[in-house]
Automatic annotation (TrEMBL):
It comes from the Bacteria. It comes from Chryseobacterium defluvii. This is HxlR family transcriptional regulator. Signal peptide: none annotated. PROSITE patterns: HTH_HXLR (PS51118). Keywords: DNA-binding, Transcription, Transcription regulation. The lineage of its organism: Bacteria, Pseudomonadati, Bacteroidota, Flavobacteriia, Flavobacteriales. Residues 19-118 form the HTH hxlR-type domain.
Amino acid sequence: MRKNNSTNALNEQFLFGICELNSAISMISGRWKSQIIYSISEGNNRFHLIKKELPNISEQVLGRQLKELETHRLIVKRELPDTVPMGIEYILTNKGKDIIPILKDLCEWGKEYAEGKEILINECS
């Protein structure tokens, strides 16, 4: 856990204060979050279904990423009462649903300009 008055925490607060983009990127940053969001949007709304869809993620990391997405209110966790043991499903909030088209656009942008692809100088102006 990071101290609130650490240099990293203070820099983060500064960046979040000057541009909402930094805050938005922070919500979906991390190796797996965008894939988890997309997986849930495709109907893989239980822990084991997400794990099956993303087999290279460890259970510990998946659990931590789900908690972070829940903290940012991109997903909510709902208990399934008629399951033994008690099951949990993850549901995208409206905030989470609203980011799906943005993630799809970023995916298309990545296909066009992924690392290793040449970017022409005149495209940057």
